[in-house]
């Protein structure tokens, strides 16, 4: 490799809860200087990522970009293919996918080598997007099945105070105002009024 080549690395995690260490370590093992590693903590659904954009501006025909796996670059087959074209054709930089050695544009600098790299990219990016869609479909099916079994998502509603029924009856009969009823139940007026509306149509009522 030409010693004057500029080496860059790109890493991405979907959320701030994930750990980027595995990607960073892999990039450093490939000789990427820490100052040239760009990290985004954003979804891969598009390329509106600040660090990615900053990195792209630095690439030229004397650059090599390392990524751990193709899905770190992006998940959308169309967008990923477009960005691959921008990096390799418009910027003229090389790309090395660490987990997939065949996706190394430094190899076979001829028409056949380019064809093989582009073909493999199309296949792998399609698989990455398909897997992503499958995961989300399974999640949606799991949620639907859980709801069908009666599972309730979200936080359970707070229990009504023990005196709510008596206070509600007094408020309903006009013996208490909303403010007085809310004070008796130790809750804001708006909350009492909302609870009262729900309570009216619930199975709590015995009248």
Which key features would you list for this structure?
4 strands, disordered C terminus, 2 domains, Rossmann fold, Arc Repressor Mutant, subunit A, four-stranded parallel β-sheet, elongated, 207 residues, alpha/beta
Quick take:
The protein contains eight helices and four strands, in the order βαβαβααβαααα. By secondary structure, the protein is α/β, with parallel strands linked by helices.
Structure description:
The protein is α/β, with parallel strands linked by helices. It has 2 domains: 6-131, Rossmann fold (3-Layer(aba) Sandwich); 154-207, Arc Repressor Mutant, subunit A. 49% of the residues lie in helices and 11% in strands. It has helices at residues 21-29, 50-58, 70-73, 77-90, 111-148, 164-172, 178-184, 189-200, and strands at 6-13, 37-41, 63-67, 94-97. It has a 4-stranded parallel β-sheet, sandwiched between helices. It is elongated and about 90 Å long. The protein starts with 5 loop residues before the first strand and ends in a 7-residue tail after the last helix. The relative contact order is 0.08. The model is unreliable at 203-207 (pLDDT under 50).
Any chance you could write out the topology, listing elements then pairs?
Elements: E1 6-13, H1 21-29, E2 37-41, H2 50-58, E3 63-67, H3 70-73, H4 77-90, E4 94-97, H5 111-148, H6 164-172, H7 178-184, H8 189-200
Parallel strand pairs: 1-2, 1-3, 3-4
Helix pairs in contact: 4-5, 6-7, 7-8
């Amino acid at each position: 490799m030409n010693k004057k080549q500029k080496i860059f690395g790109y890493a991405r995690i979907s959320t701030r809860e994930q750990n980027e260490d595995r990607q960073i370590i892999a990039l450093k093992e490939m000789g990427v200087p820490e100052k040239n590693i760009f990290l985004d903590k954003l979804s891969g659904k598009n390329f509106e990522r600040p660090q990615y954009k900053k990195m792209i501006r630095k690439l030229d025909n004397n650059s090599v970009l390392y990524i751990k796996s193709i899905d770190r670059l992006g998940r959308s087959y169309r967008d990923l293919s477009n960005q691959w074209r921008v990096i390799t054709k418009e910027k003229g930089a090389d790309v090395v996918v660490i987990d997939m050695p065949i996706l190394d544009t430094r190899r076979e600098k001829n028409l056949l080598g380019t064809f093989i790299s582009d073909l493999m990219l199309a296949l792998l990016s399609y698989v990455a997007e398909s897997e992503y869609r499958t995961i989300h479909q399974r999640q949606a099916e799991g949620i639907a099945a859980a709801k069908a079994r009666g599972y309730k998502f979200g936080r359970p509603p707070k229990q009504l105070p023990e005196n709510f029924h008596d206070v509600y009856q007094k408020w309903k009969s006009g013996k208490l105002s909303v403010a007085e009823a809310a004070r008796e139940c130790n809750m804001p007026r708006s909350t009492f009024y909302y609870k009262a509306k729900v309570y009216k149509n619930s199975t709590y009522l015995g009248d």
